[in-house]
Amino acid sequence: MITLSTDEFEFDDNRPSVEQEKSRYDLLAKGVAHLILIAASAVMTIPFIWAFLTSLKPENKIFTTITQIIPANPTFANYVNVWMQNPLDRWVLNSLVLAVGVVFFTLVLDTLAGFALAKGDFKGKSLVYTLVIGTLVIPPQVVLVPLYLEMNAINWSNTYWAIMVLYIANPFGTFMMRQFFLGIPDSLLEAARMDGCSTIQIYTRIMLPLAKPALSSLGVFTFIFVWGAFLWPLVILNDSAMYPLQVGIGLLTGRYSSQWGQLLAAVILAALPVIAAYLLAQRTFMEGIALTGGKG
After folding, report:
1. pTM score over 0.90
2. Which residues of 122-152 are buried (b: 16+ CB within 10 A; e: fewer)?
3. pLDDT value of residue 3
4. What is the mean pLDDT of the chain?
5. How far apart are alpha carbons 239 and 237 in whole angstroms?
6. What is the 3-state secondary structure (H, E, C) of the chain?
7. Residues 106-130: pLDDT tens digits?
8. Cα–Cα separations (whole angstroms), residue 23 to 4, 15, 28, 154, 248
9. How distant, in Å, are the alpha carbons of 71, 189, 258 from that of 50?
C-alpha cells in the first residue's frame, strides 16, 4: 500500500482563489461600464450646459466670447426678451394641450389594444399583431400627404385634433403594453372570472392597477415625442396662434440673421417640461422599462 504525504507537495498560498478572481473581474467590468456611462452622459449633457450658459450672455457677446464657456456677466435678458417679444405663453399652452391630449388617448387605446393582443382569444390575433408591428417600420413622413388631404376633406385642418390624430394609438405603445400584460399570469385572470368579474372589470380593476409602471413609461415616452413634434404641426397649421412651441421656436430663426441668445433661451425653456416629466416619473419609469421586455 502506497502512502502519500502532503509534505512532499508545495502549495502556493499566494495564488488568488476563484472567488477573488471573479471579484476582480466584476470590479473591472463595473469600472468599464461606469466609464462608458460617464462618457455617454457627458456627450448628452455638455451641449445642454453650453446652450444654457450661452443663453446667459448678451447678444453682442455670444460670438465674440465663444471660447469663454462661463459668461463673465450673466444676464437673463434673453429669457425676458424672448418671452415679451413672442407669444411664447401661447405656444407653451398649445404644446401642453397637444401633449396631454395625446398622452391620455394613447394610454387608453394602447392599453386596450395591448390587453386584447396579450390576453384575448379571437381569430386573427396573430395577424393583427403582425400588422401592428409592421406599421413600426413605416416612417410618419410617408402618410403626410394623404393625411393632409384627409384632414382638409373633413375640415380638421388648423385644429388640435388634426395634430393629435397622427400620434394617438401608436403601435409602439401597443407593443409595449402587450409585452407587459404577457407577464401577468393567466391564473390571476381565471381567478377573477371565477369570482364573477367581466372582461371590462378585469381590465379596469386588475390589469390597469398592475400596469402603473408601464403606463408611466409609455406616458413619458409619448409626452417627449409629442412635445418635440415639428413637421406635422408645421404642415397642417396655418395660424401662428395654433403653433406648438417647437414650431414657434423655428420662427425665431430669420432668413438673414437670428437672435441666437433668445433662440437658446427658448430652447432651454422648451426642455424644462421634458426634464420635469422624467424626474416626476423616474422611479416608475425605470421600473416600467424593466418589466416590459419579459416575454415575446
Report:
1. no
2. eeeeeebbeebeeeeeeeeeeeeeebeeebe
3. 55
4. 84
5. 6
6. CCCCCHHHCCCCCCCCCHHHHHHHHHHHHHHHHHHHHHHHHHHHHHHHHHHHHHHCCCHHHCCCCCCCCCCCCCCCHHHHHHHHHCCHHHHHHHHHHHHHHHHHHHHHHHHHHHHHHHHCCCCCHHHHHHHHHHHHHCCHHHHHHHHHHHHHHCCCCCCHHHHHCCCCCCHHHHHHHHHHHHCCCHHHHHHHHHCCCCHHHHHHHHHHHHCHHHHHHHHHHHHHHHHCCCHHHHHHCCCHHHCCHHHHHHCCECCCCECHHHHHHHHHHHHHHHHHHHHHCHHHHHHHHHHCCCCC
7. 999 999 999 999 988 888 888 999 9
8. 35, 14, 9, 66, 54
9. 11, 52, 18
Taking alpha carbons only, the member of 87, 60, 107 closest to residue 203 is 107
Q: Answer for the pair 252, 258: CB distance below 8 angstroms, yes or no.
A: yes
Q: Give me the tens of pLDDT residue by residue for the chain, a chain 296 residues long.
A: 555 555 554 545 555 566 666 677 788 888 898 999 999 988 888 888 988 999 999 888 888 777 788 888 888 999 999 999 889 999 999 999 999 999 999 999 999 999 999 988 888 888 999 998 888 888 888 888 899 999 999 999 889 999 998 888 788 899 989 988 988 888 888 888 888 888 889 888 888 888 888 888 888 889 989 999 999 999 999 888 899 999 999 888 776 667 888 899 999 999 988 888 878 777 766 665 555 554 44
Grid cell, residue 248, equals 414657434
Surface-to-core class of residue 44, CB atoms within 10 Å of its CB (0-12 exposed, 13-18 middle, 19+ buried) = exposed
